[in-house]
Amino acid sequence: MIGDQENNGRCPLCGGHLSAGITTIPFIFADTAVLVKQVPAQICDNCREPFTIGAVTDRLVDLVCRVKNLHTEVSIVSYAESERVYA
Ligand SMILES: [Zn+2]
Q1: What's the pLDDT at 5?
Q2: For residue 61, how far is its CA from the centre of ligand 1 (angstroms)?
Q3: Which of 16, 35, 38, 47 could form a Cys-Cys staple with 80, CB 3.0–4.6 A?
Q4: What's this model's pTM, rounded to 2 decimal places?
Q5: pLDDT at 81 (0 to 100)
Q6: Cα(86)–Cα(61) distance, integer angstroms
Q7: Which residues surround ligand 1, an ion (CB under 5 A)?
């Protein structure tokens, strides 16, 4: 039997094992799309679904809101670079 910590390391979608990694997450809106590269996430070994932790999610939402306001059709931004620019 393994403790709660290990249960948290399971994919909520398929139960696969999550590994720390870097991923690209697309945010699609009605009039724009924002692609965020280099996002630190827990990635499912089985279905490849990325999950971000709370602090990363908050920063992602903030970043996407800023970029969305530029009203470009497609934006590609780097999460890692945003930390330097906006920190
Ligand atoms: Zn999964």
Answers
A1: 45
A2: 23
A3: 38
A4: 0.78
A5: 82
A6: 13
A7: 11, 13-14, 16, 44, 46-47, 49
Domains of the chain: 4-86 (3.10.20.860)
| CA of 9 relative to ligand 1 center, distance in Å | 11
Cα 27 to ligand 1 centre (Å): 20
Q: What is the pLDDT of residues 24-75, one digit of tens each?
A: 999 999 989 999 999 999 999 999 999 999 999 999 999 999 999 888 999 9
**21 Cβ contact partners less than 8 Å away, ≥ 6 residues apart:** 40, 41, 42, 43, 50
How many Å lie between the centroid of ligand 1 and the Cα of residue 79? 23
